[in-house]
Amino acid sequence: MMKVTKKQLIFTAAQHLFSEKGYNDTSLQLIAEAVGTTRSNILYHYESKGHLFEIVLKQWEEQWYKSWHVIRDTITKPSEQLMAYFKAFIYEDLRHPLRKALDEYLLEINGQKEERERWVASDRAAFELILRNGMMQGVFRINPAAIRVQVDVLVGFIYGVSDTMENKTEAELLAAVNFFLKMYLLTITTGFSEEVNR
């Protein structure tokens, strides 16, 4: 059996406290007390609270990528992939225990665009893959020159939901997603989006 290192204990305690209390209400002293160590010992392993939180975020991001790969590799119908992606976004992003901490962290670092842009780029790539797959299968009738516009619509929707519906119930979120996707899929499966984007 492998011995758990102090660095691992600090990470685990920080992850738990950030999830429970958010970024602002989790201090290095609180983490130190949870582990039974000192603040300076935490700073020996992690250069700052922000650095420690970024490592916690990295693990969350890796879990998200695993979920996306499962969706991509196990669901073959592009319309079902879109629905699965949106549901994963609700359950593994909006409703994730670290979500409050992430929002607080982004505000503290003056909303640095790099972090959010990295996540947006990931969502863009996923949506583009799904849409192109649907086009290749002949399911989605999208003008290839307008693919970026279609990706923008999907990204705009999920970040709009993220920014405006975070306090809604799960049922309300799912209803909004279902309504949007039904309308969106109607436009891209009937060719209406081709007409609009000419």
TrEMBL record:
<keyword id="KW-0678">Repressor</keyword>
<dbReference type="InterPro" id="IPR050109">
    <property type="entry name" value="HTH-type_TetR-like_transc_reg"/>
</dbReference>
<keyword id="KW-0238">DNA-binding</keyword>
<feature type="DNA-binding region" description="H-T-H motif">
    <location>
        <begin position="27"/>
        <end position="46"/>
    </location>
</feature>
<dbReference type="Pfam" id="PF00440">
    <property type="entry name" value="TetR_N"/>
</dbReference>
<dbReference type="InterPro" id="IPR009057">
    <property type="entry name" value="Homeodomain-like_sf"/>
</dbReference>
<dbReference type="InterPro" id="IPR013571">
    <property type="entry name" value="Tscrpt_reg_QacR_C"/>
</dbReference>
<dbReference type="GO" id="GO:0045892">
    <property type="term" value="P:negative regulation of DNA-templated transcription"/>
</dbReference>
<dbReference type="Pfam" id="PF08360">
    <property type="entry name" value="TetR_C_5"/>
</dbReference>
<dbReference type="GO" id="GO:0003700">
    <property type="term" value="F:DNA-binding transcription factor activity"/>
</dbReference>
<protein>
    <submittedName>
        <fullName>TetR family transcriptional regulator</fullName>
    </submittedName>
</protein>
<dbReference type="InterPro" id="IPR001647">
    <property type="entry name" value="HTH_TetR"/>
</dbReference>
<keyword id="KW-0804">Transcription</keyword>
<dbReference type="GO" id="GO:0000976">
    <property type="term" value="F:transcription cis-regulatory region binding"/>
</dbReference>
<feature type="domain" description="HTH tetR-type">
    <location>
        <begin position="4"/>
        <end position="64"/>
    </location>
</feature>
<keyword id="KW-0805">Transcription regulation</keyword>
